Amino acid sequence: MRRSHDHIKIHPVGVCEKCGQNKFPHHMCLECGYYKGRKVIITKAERRTLRREKKEN
């Protein structure tokens, strides 16, 4: 009974509206960088393409 609170919890998982990947509720999507339909961060793949375009110009 001493460690009855240490059981494993199953976290709820939602689906990103933009890309369809699994994500935690009330968190941004780590794949596309969107939260509630708006862009929050630039992902690694987008950063790579921006760097490539910058080098070509």
Automatic annotation (TrEMBL):
Keywords: Ribonucleoprotein, Ribosomal protein
Gene Ontology terms: biological process: translation
Pfam families cross-referenced by the UniProt entry: Ribosomal_L32p
GO CC terms, sorted: large ribosomal subunit
Gene Ontology MF, one: structural constituent of ribosome
Superkingdom per UniProt: Bacteria
Record's signal peptide: none
NCBIfam families with a match to the protein in the record: rpmF_bact (TIGR01031)
Family membership noted in the UniProt record: Belongs to the bacterial ribosomal protein bL32 family.
Protein name: Large ribosomal subunit protein bL32
Source species of the chain: Holospora obtusa F1
